[in-house]
Amino acid sequence: MSTATKPKHIGRNISRIRELRGMKQEALAEAIGLSQQTVSSIETSETVDFEKLVQIAKVLGVTVEAIENFTEESVFNFFNNFYDNSANNGAQGNTTNNHCNFNPLDKVVELYERLVQSEKEKVEYLEKLMNGK
Q1: For a tag on the chain, would you pick the N or C end, based on fewer CB atoms within 10 A?
Q2: What is the pTM of this model?
Protein backbone atom coordinates (compact mmCIF):
# COMPACT_ATOMS: atom_id res chain seq x y z
CA MET A 1 0.00 0.00 0.00
CA SER A 2 1.34 3.39 -0.95
CA THR A 3 1.53 6.11 1.68
CA ALA A 4 2.32 8.85 -0.83
CA THR A 5 -0.25 11.60 -0.85
CA LYS A 6 -1.69 12.94 -4.05
CA PRO A 7 -0.41 16.39 -4.96
CA LYS A 8 -2.98 19.13 -4.54
CA HIS A 9 -4.75 19.88 -7.79
CA ILE A 10 -5.53 23.57 -7.42
CA GLY A 11 -7.47 23.80 -10.68
CA ARG A 12 -9.79 20.97 -9.68
CA ASN A 13 -10.34 22.62 -6.30
CA ILE A 14 -11.27 25.89 -8.02
CA SER A 15 -13.68 23.99 -10.26
CA ARG A 16 -15.41 22.24 -7.34
CA ILE A 17 -15.70 25.41 -5.24
CA ARG A 18 -17.08 27.28 -8.27
CA GLU A 19 -19.63 24.51 -8.85
CA LEU A 20 -20.62 24.47 -5.17
CA ARG A 21 -21.15 28.22 -5.39
CA GLY A 22 -23.44 27.67 -8.39
CA MET A 23 -21.22 29.78 -10.62
CA LYS A 24 -20.55 29.08 -14.29
CA GLN A 25 -17.10 29.33 -15.84
CA GLU A 26 -18.28 32.29 -17.90
CA ALA A 27 -19.26 34.24 -14.78
CA LEU A 28 -15.93 33.55 -13.10
CA ALA A 29 -14.08 34.47 -16.28
CA GLU A 30 -15.93 37.76 -16.61
CA ALA A 31 -15.34 38.63 -12.95
CA ILE A 32 -11.57 38.20 -13.24
CA GLY A 33 -11.25 39.57 -16.77
CA LEU A 34 -10.37 36.37 -18.59
CA SER A 35 -12.01 34.24 -21.25
CA GLN A 36 -14.06 31.17 -20.43
CA GLN A 37 -11.46 29.05 -22.24
CA THR A 38 -8.72 30.43 -19.97
CA VAL A 39 -10.76 29.57 -16.87
CA SER A 40 -11.28 26.08 -18.27
CA SER A 41 -7.52 25.79 -18.76
CA ILE A 42 -6.88 27.01 -15.20
CA GLU A 43 -9.31 24.42 -13.84
CA THR A 44 -7.38 21.62 -15.55
CA SER A 45 -4.01 22.84 -14.22
CA GLU A 46 -2.42 21.40 -11.10
CA THR A 47 -0.85 24.75 -10.25
CA VAL A 48 -2.14 28.29 -10.70
CA ASP A 49 -0.30 31.60 -10.71
CA PHE A 50 -0.61 33.14 -7.22
CA GLU A 51 -2.01 36.49 -8.45
CA LYS A 52 -4.72 34.70 -10.43
CA LEU A 53 -5.43 32.48 -7.44
CA VAL A 54 -5.94 35.56 -5.25
CA GLN A 55 -8.38 37.04 -7.79
CA ILE A 56 -10.27 33.77 -8.12
CA ALA A 57 -10.47 33.32 -4.35
CA LYS A 58 -11.89 36.83 -3.98
CA VAL A 59 -14.57 36.22 -6.62
CA LEU A 60 -15.49 32.85 -5.12
CA GLY A 61 -15.67 34.39 -1.65
CA VAL A 62 -13.08 32.10 -0.09
CA THR A 63 -9.47 32.40 1.00
CA VAL A 64 -6.50 31.19 -1.02
CA GLU A 65 -5.88 28.66 1.74
CA ALA A 66 -9.43 27.34 1.36
CA ILE A 67 -8.76 26.66 -2.32
CA GLU A 68 -5.38 25.08 -1.64
CA ASN A 69 -6.66 22.86 1.17
CA PHE A 70 -10.09 22.04 -0.29
CA THR A 71 -11.24 18.44 -0.03
CA GLU A 72 -14.56 16.82 -0.78
CA GLU A 73 -14.50 15.21 2.66
CA SER A 74 -14.27 18.57 4.42
CA VAL A 75 -17.32 19.84 2.54
CA PHE A 76 -19.34 16.77 3.44
CA ASN A 77 -18.19 16.96 7.06
CA PHE A 78 -19.20 20.61 7.23
CA PHE A 79 -22.66 20.00 5.83
CA ASN A 80 -23.20 16.86 7.91
CA ASN A 81 -22.17 18.64 11.11
CA PHE A 82 -24.31 21.63 10.23
CA TYR A 83 -27.31 19.42 9.54
CA ASP A 84 -26.72 17.31 12.67
CA ASN A 85 -26.40 20.35 14.90
CA SER A 86 -29.51 21.95 13.43
CA ALA A 87 -31.49 18.75 13.80
CA ASN A 88 -30.27 18.11 17.34
CA ASN A 89 -31.14 21.58 18.52
CA GLY A 90 -34.69 21.12 17.34
CA ALA A 91 -35.01 17.51 18.48
CA GLN A 92 -33.76 18.18 22.00
CA GLY A 93 -36.40 20.79 22.53
CA ASN A 94 -33.86 23.51 22.95
CA THR A 95 -36.00 26.62 23.07
CA THR A 96 -33.49 29.18 21.88
CA ASN A 97 -35.92 31.09 19.74
CA ASN A 98 -34.92 34.30 18.10
CA HIS A 99 -37.11 37.09 19.39
CA CYS A 100 -37.01 40.72 18.46
CA ASN A 101 -36.04 43.00 21.30
CA PHE A 102 -38.30 45.64 19.80
CA ASN A 103 -41.71 45.88 18.25
CA PRO A 104 -41.31 46.15 14.46
CA LEU A 105 -44.43 48.32 14.24
CA ASP A 106 -42.89 50.77 16.70
CA LYS A 107 -39.86 51.01 14.42
CA VAL A 108 -42.07 51.70 11.40
CA VAL A 109 -43.91 54.43 13.31
CA GLU A 110 -40.63 55.91 14.50
CA LEU A 111 -39.24 56.00 10.95
CA TYR A 112 -42.47 57.52 9.64
CA GLU A 113 -42.36 60.24 12.30
CA ARG A 114 -38.75 61.01 11.41
CA LEU A 115 -39.70 61.23 7.74
CA VAL A 116 -42.60 63.60 8.50
CA GLN A 117 -40.33 65.77 10.67
CA SER A 118 -37.75 65.90 7.88
CA GLU A 119 -40.40 66.97 5.38
CA LYS A 120 -41.62 69.69 7.76
CA GLU A 121 -38.07 71.01 8.07
CA LYS A 122 -37.74 71.07 4.27
CA VAL A 123 -40.98 73.02 3.94
CA GLU A 124 -39.87 75.54 6.59
CA TYR A 125 -36.52 75.95 4.83
CA LEU A 126 -38.16 76.48 1.44
CA GLU A 127 -40.64 78.97 2.89
CA LYS A 128 -37.77 80.86 4.45
CA LEU A 129 -35.99 80.97 1.08
CA MET A 130 -39.12 82.15 -0.70
CA ASN A 131 -39.75 84.93 1.86
CA GLY A 132 -36.13 86.05 1.63
CA LYS A 133 -36.35 86.76 -2.13
Answers
A1: N
A2: 0.54
